[in-house]
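Both lines are retained for reference:
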Amino acid sequence: MSCKKATLGRGHIRREYVLNPITALAFYQSSTDGKQYLLAGEDTDIKIYDVQTSRFCGQLPVLRAQSIHGIAVPSGDASQHRLILAWGGHSIKVFPGDILEGLISNCNKSLDLVKGAVEARAPDWIFDGRVSPFGDNRIVLLTAHNEVILAHVNSDRNSLIFDSTRSPSRPILYSGNFFWASKDCVLVAAGTVFGEILVWKCHLDESPEANQNSEVLFVFTGHEGSIFGVHISPEIQTTTGETLRLLASCSDDRTIRIWDITERHRKREHVRQEYETHISDARETGFGNNVEVTTGDDSSEKCVATAMGHISRIWQVEFPQVQMLSRVSGVVELYSFGEDATAQKWNLSLDPAAKLTHQSTFSNHSGKHIWSHATTSTTSGDLLVATGGADGKISVMGASTSASLHKISSNGQTSPIDNITEKRKVVAWSLADVTQSCQRTVVPKQISVEVPDSQITAPLSAKPKNAKEAFNRYTFVSDKRLLAATNSGRVFVGTFEDDITWAELNLPDEIGQIVFSHALLETSGANPMAFIGTVSGEIYYFDELGAPSLHLLTKIDGKVAQIFCLSNATKSHVKENEALVQNDGPAAYSRNRLEFLVTTLRSTQAAIIQVDPNDLTTRHFEVTLETGFMVTAAAFSQSYLVIGSRKGTVAVFELGDDKYSLLFTFVVQINEAITSILPLRSRGNQSHNYILSTCRDGKYRIHEIVTERGQTGAAVLLHEAQPPFVSSIEGAWLSSDNGSCDGTKTRSKTRTRGDLMLCGFRSHNLVVWNETHRHEVATVECGGASRSYAWTPRAGGLADGFRFVFTKAGQMHVFSQALDPLRTPKPGGHGREIKTVSVSASGRFVATAAEDTVIRIWGYDSKGDSDTKLRCVAALERHAAGIQALKWHGDEYLFSSAGNEEFFVWKINTLDSDDFTGLAVVCEAVFPDRTEVGDARITDFDVDDAGTSEDASGSFRISMALSNSTLQTYAYTRQDGFRLLGRSAYTGACLTQIRHLGENHVLTAATDGYLAIYAITGQDVGVDGDGSAVNADVMPVVTKLHQNTIKSLDLRQITSPTAGSSEYIVITGGDDNALGFTHVSLSPSSSSASGSDVTVAIKSKSIVRSAHAAAITGVALAHLDEDGGGDALVVTCSNDQRVRIWRLGGWGQQQQPRAQLLHERYSSVADAGELEVFEDIDVDEDGDGERRDKAEEKKESGTRKRKVVVVGVGIEIWELDI
């Protein structure tokens, strides 16, 4: 959008943010700096991103009221003057590449092409377009009726001139593709609605009168559905020396087909005659028998390969254009893009017989639909594949995204990351391979640390009986060193350099079977060590910085069961300023020590062992566990030892004199193992004690350990989340990255924290997930969790770097990744249509819910650029049915309703932590009072403070409207749950809206177009047959307003001229395209001596017919003048993709209200579901804890603003002058 904002009057709106489906993508190589950029079509604008750094470089408004469907950048030398073509529907825009160069060189600037650039309107819908690569200002367009339009740009007149239209026939197309074969000829592939594919040549130098401008080459049938995508390959030279040209197609039948469209210099007159015979009845109408017509009987000219792909419809296919040119190969790459939101890679083997084989699946988007894609290759020969989804996300896949690794400094500059020896690879090692590569290292006979004779026992036999030797245990000393052991007791050390080098450690005969320590999941450590325990109780250590050998460290009583590393020599669990630290106490001893927990088999005794890295002296601290407590995770959190068990409980210990005493235990999840515990740092001078735990139930949770002197303490659950990637989470860590190539980081303020990384299993795959930015980092097919494995994050500022070792098919596999080959220039949101939206009281958070059953909470930053004003801070994935409504109460509570009578209460917590940047959310309550069938939808609800509670912030009154014509009101508190206050029934019509009118009345709207007002007492007034409270003989006040369904409603209390009365103005939007206004009065009844009876009256009502061209799905009162006779500003949205601002006058007088349309704007959100108006409030910008209301600030200067958020297929935010 233009940086210059026009000064407009009251009721005018300007769009400031949009998150919409990405409908067009194209790569662009800059002539200024030679770098690759990505052009993304989002609604009417083109956004520009740096491929290498994912940096947002600018935004270019292109079309007026039409989303962009395609962008074409001509191939050739980047230094040449180039035209850029963009189209959508009938609209076409052509502009010079110099405009893009200006945006690239002046980042975050915005130009406006709506005025002043070449624009035209085509006579038909455009499916594909190309700019001539020969620099002659020509373009070609393919229409929805198989016509090629030749046009050229007249620079002098600044106009686009259509020269001619050419076509061999006019069937209805669903897809099309151009290939510029020569300067005066383009090759056309067209996929029809009726399942046929036409391949023809369009000769651009022939005159239309000559009737020789089109030449039909092939007509293919075979797909069992409409053709959604076709793509022509460049010429391919095979290993036999033959030159081929192929066509790929995809269809509604979920198949990909490869066709040979190589011209073999045969006469084609019979093809044209046969084609013309059948075209009128078989191609243009879809009726008649479809006949496959080719240039001969040679089967090589028919379908050469077929494969089934994706789990739903396939939208697009593409041969990467550059990767095959001038190469001799028997394998050709192909990519497909589907409705299932995945991109899939295929290999087409040409020799000896053509075969299409699936290679990999990339699940980089949420929800449904990949709507756009682009491919290119870099100067290093790496292939880049970009995808744009319905979720608004842009992903870039390819090795070249990590070919030049950079990190982002605090000033936004990039600097290279050194010592990256591999980007992403997996290597399999058999035991024989490892043995052959070893250089044996002899362990000295002397032991590094003397152990008293009284602590040494006779070693047990360590040799397995008749067992096939194989790798069975692994641990990482650091990301540079790996220990691997066999079931025969041999230990090998692997060193990661350019490749893995191995050395076998000579072990003492008495060492026996061993246990490796669980590595400390940190990306840094001054003195990396691994510990090895034996069945005799000896504990050895391996020092990465020392000689490659094992050294005896200490000994414990019993058989070593598990060893958990807790801290290294650079990190202690005791803070420097804690009072616990004494000069000679155990806490002081723990500073700058290595610490680990050792458990023993079939014993409740465990020990914390602290090691001085300077002289390797040790000190043991006793830990007594409860009976049956099997340790699966352990960590220090401040001065407390926190241990997780296999049965889902966590124990918290406090250090005393040489002993850790149990303070308390709490249950995380019954009978689900705690797999890891991660302490989170408090922010600044805060003293919160947060711990994050992962569990086998697929969730991670954050608790705060709360302790006071003289009390046992407790753990408060603050956050619970289930990422979508796994069935079980096995570990969590914080990356040490200060920035990376991910654009979501580079556009934020200076960051000193790493990303929260999660690791777990999904079926047979190990998945690494970045929870901070919610995307998969890597997926490794390893066979599942039932095997030996270990992993460690990578050091050196690589958020996505990690190593993973596992046993599969008797071999050791080592997976290494320096950087995720996936980059996300633009993060997305919902992948399905958004049904509802709600904004918190402060305006800080925007909650949205979609058909994907996910609730997303967004942080709103009014100072962010046009691409970053909204940032997803939480995703709630507990609902199983379609979500119907959302409502905030303050900033602390969020309520949601859905189908199957689902209703959840969410508690919102803000963590004062430097390590967790998201919003902490926990589901506080689930609505229990479902009907016996339980299949009704809670279509809407309203919530407010109960008022009678001493703590009103935690006591609510909730009224629900159900699709079975029931409305019910409950009192809710955290302690007591839900208590029914009353239930009423409407008619057979479905209730769609509900609002509270004061404390004792509710207003409902229904599918019959009526408004109804019910009285509620706030007390139980009766009991029906099943024991629930009902309102007996409650007759509502009803009024007819709309012809059918009332789809949206908002109301506001207004000043009443009568003392003791309450008046409301009600705004409604209907499925009849009408906008309704109703004036409701609630006044004490004159016949009631006590004044408890209330008279409900409809003082006036009016309706604006045809207020929109389609159903009005969202209405909101943006502003109400304070005086009784003032005006109201009303905002409406509709399925006609328009946002309108209305002035409502006269509502406080006896006359009928009058509505005036003030402003109208095109909305980028299709199928709008709802809108909400909120005030722009900045929260604690300078960190002093004070909030500044920008609305009040602007009121003083004479201008007041509101924000309008519209949701549907996407999200957009408008600024409204009030």
Notes: The CA atoms of residues 260 and 299 lie 9 Å apart. The helical segments are 97-105, 269-283, 431-437, 586-590, 743-746, 1190-1197. The mean pLDDT is 81.
